[in-house]
Amino acid sequence: LNPLRGRDFLSLGDVSPAEVEALLDLAEELKKKRGAAEGAAPLAGKTLAMIFDKPSTRTRVSFEAGMIQLGGHALSLSRNELQLGRGETLADTARTLSRYVDGILIRTHAHATVVELARHATVPVINGLTDLFHPCQALADLLTLREKKGRLAGLKLAYVGDGNNVLHSLLHAAAAAGMHLAVATPPGYEPDPGVVAEANQIAQTTGARLSFFHDPEAAVRGADAVYTDVWASMGQEEEKERRIRDFQGFQVDANLMSRAKGDALFLHCLPAYRGLEVSEEVIDGPRSVVFDQAENRLHAQKALLLTLLG
Ligand code: CP
Ligand code: NVA
């Protein structure tokens, strides 16, 4: 039974809580088997095309390495290497690539671009980050929390910072997993109300709780884990100075971490900017699991690739 097979992975809001759990179970299994499964090539002969309109370290390398480990192949393309950069339509690009490859990953600006690509592709499309969502990241984050805490349901996760793509997918993820996600953003940087409504709908079926603050300490109180992300995302470079001013008081530092539980973890999707959204002491300290998160991108995405392309 594989209901995700042949489907797209554009938003975690489209994936049922049971499917999320199945992906995490498979990821955990693949992580344990790593090395032991040498010779097994479940995606032999399969190709993933990856289109990047924005830079990437983790997404690009973990998807490429993941495809190779599963016996397949991945090719990384930037818009300007494709005729897309010279005005060929997304629709024609999607139709053409679908004749060659078994899946398409895209990282781009507008979420509508990914939706448009998926509409015309006849192979599964994976969202490798848009301005609105980062579902692959949230999947790896759930895997990391489950691995470190032994469970997800009932955990309290605090998110402090910008109401951005990473938070939007975390809202879906926490809702699916039955967690309590407490969010603190500066006024004016709240998450998208449509995404919050969608996440609240999922939460009603799982017992998850989503709460929203403008005071970081209020969100972090008693949390099992504290998450932050950059204040200026890719594409917001010109807003950086204003954002640094607006986010004063939102740095995750040792003082803020002391409001969480004594064994609270620190999470960040990376790349991180020490001295802005997080202090060096916290991100390089003993409670930080940021490189486990980065590693888990690989395992979670291998589970996704097997499920969608297998
Ligand atoms: N977290 C994440 O998506 O990293 P990259 O931008 O390096 O892919
Ligand atoms: N919010 C960040 C995440 C990077 C992985 C961005 O979109 O740039």
TrEMBL record:
Annotated localization: Cytoplasm
One of the record's GO molecular function terms: ornithine carbamoyltransferase activity
The entry's keywords: Cytoplasm, Transferase
Every Aspartate/ornithine carbamoyltransferase carbamoyl-P binding domain range: 7-147
Positions contributing to L-ornithine binding: 165, 229, 233-234
Catalytic activity: carbamoyl phosphate + L-ornithine = L-citrulline + phosphate + H(+)
Domain Aspartate/ornithine carbamoyltransferase Asp/Orn-binding: 154-307
Protein's GO biological process: citrulline biosynthetic process; L-arginine biosynthetic process via ornithine
One matching Pfam family: OTCace
Coiled coil: none
One GO CC term, this protein: cytoplasm
Keyword Coiled coil: no
Sequence positions that bind carbamoyl phosphate: 56-59, 83, 107, 134-137, 269-270, 297
SUPFAM superfamilies cross-referenced by the UniProt entry: Aspartate/ornithine carbamoyltransferase (SSF53671)
Pathway stated in the Swiss-Prot or TrEMBL entry: Amino-acid biosynthesis; L-arginine biosynthesis; L-arginine from L-ornithine and carbamoyl phosphate: step 1/3
The EC number(s) this enzyme carries: 2.1.3.3
Family assignment from sequence similarity: Belongs to the aspartate/ornithine carbamoyltransferase superfamily. OTCase family.
Function statement: Reversibly catalyzes the transfer of the carbamoyl group from carbamoyl phosphate (CP) to the N(epsilon) atom of ornithine (ORN) to produce L-citrulline.
Protein name: Ornithine carbamoyltransferase
Organism listed in the record: Planifilum fulgidum
